[in-house]
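Hey, can you fold this?
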Amino acid sequence: MNKIVRLPSLAAIRVFEAAARHENFTEAAAELGMTQASVSYQIKVLEERIGAPLFLRQARKVTLTAIGRQLSTPTIEAFDRLRATYGADQDALNRTLAISALPTFAANWLAPRIGRFQMAHPDLAVRVESDPKLIDFAQDEIDVAIRYGKGDWPGVVAHALFPSEFTPITSRELLDAEGPIQSPADLLNLQIIDPTDPFWKLWLAEAGVATDGLSDRVGSHLGAQTVEVRAVLSGQGIAMLTPRFFRYELETGRLVQPFDRVSTDGGHYWLIYPTARRNMPKIRAFRQWILAEAEADNALVASG
């Protein structure tokens, strides 16, 4: 059975490696973010453990002793290997921002804007995953996420971007075929793509329209708005959608919002990330950028 050799303090070895490499306690202290007195103390601890001096202290400099030089070579080589092992992967991680976003948000809000972020941060690569599932930041390789809700998730910092807003939206082709819509009640005469969507009941109730039997109607549950809008554009019916996600289609007339009424359930879209990572440079850069983009978009919505 091999005898286990007890190592000296790893903190002391780390200080010795830097001091030996620089042959200067002041420079070692600056590299490690320590005081010169702390460096001297750790070297003294190691010398007591070794039982021999590692440096010769002179008036304005220190030099390695024979045993210090003997120990410094394998120690520096070992730390070089550690730096090579961890440094490359860490550098790649620091230069890649992994974003998990809800599919419609990713496709219709983030994608048209993310180029501006990359232009402002050309050394930072961006990876976007369109995924509606909850994120476990401890398990998933994700830096930040965009989620919908109340912002009360434990263990994360949450920044509100904009509220959930919804209104019935259809296509020009469907209106031309079915005739004009005079009142909100007329919407019930159209094919509703997902009548089980709870936003339908909320919007119609606010418009003073009874919703008895609405959820019993036959329809399609397509999940994300970005999928529902494809059905709408194909003339298959009317859907409850978020206007800001489809601003271009509304402005060009491909989509039609029959009524000005826009409802909300009190939820918001949020930028979230683990509390412990809030000061990471790449997360700080993205946070500043997306909050500014959301503020500008909110001002555009408010202006009509």
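Oh, and this one too while you're at it.
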Amino acid sequence: MTATTAVSSGKARWPVPTGLGIAASCAFAFVVAPLIVVAGAALNAEAMFFPPRQLTLRWMMAALTEGSFVNGALISFVVAVVAAAFSTLFALPVALQLRKAPPAVARILTLSFMGPLLVPSIIFALALYSVMIYAFGVTNLSILMIGHVIITMPYPVRTITAVTEHLDPALEDAAGSVGASPWRTFVSVTLPLIKPGVIAGFLFAFITSWNDFSISVFLTPRELQPLPIKIYEYLLYQYRPIIAAVSTWSVIGSAIIVLIIDRLVGLNVFTGRRS
């Protein structure tokens, strides 16, 4: 009777916020607020202020044509594409083998491949720098890419592993029973089924490489600096809205890639559950 009366009255009742809901809202605001501040500062006419005092898109347009940042973005793009491609290629056989391993062994190996995510990035970067200098004696673009492959590999390993957990072995057995070779089975059956995880892993690796600072600051050669290093060096000497505009474009690009990943496999892929 009470429910019927509430519906018939046509009055909407707003849910009373709980302590957990308030805490989640505060956490969301804490994460998003810096992005809003940076985007707002990029819209200022003269100086870095928030809220913006005189709105303009001048700095957003200038960020797309400033030579130093464009060169840094191109270098970051090349490094990110190469690193993501190699880390995904390396992660693919690893994920497929983890699927066949005993559960206890698979968990231990998975944690091992997650190693770069468990160590503070600056410590890992310093250790990697020491190893590279000892092994090669120099830092160059190839060394930088090796470093980025190492730090990005956990992402495709996890995304591909999460997708293969739902792969029905009977499909591969059926292909083998009609005479398909292991390679033919992989290309025709396995790869199409796990393609969303492969693409998502590549995109996760691309974002990680694109935004990396810790590894890049140690391994970047002076003449070929990626975008995060260009931004850092610019901030050492200047503080104009163009730097906020460059950061805003980078955030927009990363957000678009995250949305694509969410559509492919879901952002809960690292928990081992697909959407």
